[in-house]
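Here is a protein:
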Amino acid sequence: PQTRESINHARAADVPLVVAINKIDVPDANPDRVKGELAAEGLQPEDWGGTTQFAEVSAKQQTNLEELLEKVLLVADAELDLRANANAEASGPIIESRLDVARGPVATMLVQRGTLGVGDAIVAGDAAGKVRALYDYRGEKVKEAKPGEPVEILGFDRPPPAGELSRVVEHE
């Protein structure tokens, strides 16, 4: 049921899918059965004459993860218009947030538009503040984050709700 729901959401949003068939390292794994079941749902594998990219992977053994990444990049290059204005005021969704005992409210944002920098006034739902520090996905301090980059933000007055749109404003 969750797979059908995901397929329906992707269709409704008109976004392409890349399928990762996981756990191919399990002795009774049958990727062709999975492909057949997904083909019945309308996801015809490319190697069966369809248009959907499939990758057979094992996350546990880290098998074929490079192949999966290549397929994601191939679909992104071929089917998506991935451009954003880096010179605009930054905005994007809050992916997660929490109250850290040592650092205060911490929020992770995926910058979708613009460039977010230290010192920017920011608002997300009922949370607001001034960006005191930014950390990239490796936990390294950065001065700014451009479109497509996830960044951890310190400076909100409270943890903003996950899923809330965050944006830079003129002043606090």
Remarks:
- The two ends are 44 Å apart (CA to CA).
- The longest strand covers residues 91-100.
